[in-house]
Amino acid sequence: MKKKKPYIPKKVNSFIRYSGLGFEMMAIIGGFTFLGFKIDQWMNNEFKGFTFGFMVLSVIIAIVYGTKNLLKKK
């Protein structure tokens, strides 16, 4: 006899999916910004160019990643 899967409403699935996507995007942005900060710290830069550059790059990557996940059919 097969066990029935519990019914999970679509609203809950959507909420979990989109909140997870938000956390993933925050992790991408935070990770790249931290990496840029550490490179600037290591090189003793007065102008925080690596932090700024990695931050902008991470936002672009996060937007592309988020868009791909939003357009993916499930």
How would you portray this structure in words?
This protein is an all-alpha fold and 74 residues long. The chain is elongated and about 65 Å long. It contains 2 helices and no strands. The model has no long low-confidence stretch (mean pLDDT 87). It starts with 9 loop residues before the first helix and ends with a helix. The protein has helices at residues 10-43, 49-71.
Helices and strands in order, then pairings?
Blueprint: H1 10-43, H2 49-71
Helix pairs in contact: 1-2
Question: What is this entry, summarized?
Answer:
The protein is an all-alpha fold. The chain contains two helices and no strands.
Structural Rg: 19 Å
Biggest pleated-sheet summary: none
* Poorly predicted ranges: none
Name the overall outline. elongated
Mean pLDDT: 87
How do the helices and strands follow one another from N- to C-terminus?
Answer: HH
User: What is the β-strand count?
Assistant: 0
Oligomer: single chain
* Beta-strand proportion: under 5%
Question: Number of helix segments?
Answer: 2
Question: Helicity, in percent?
Answer: over 70%
Assign the structural class, choosing from mainly alpha, mainly beta, alpha/beta, alpha+beta, or little secondary structure.
Answer: mainly alpha
Distance between the termini: 28 Å
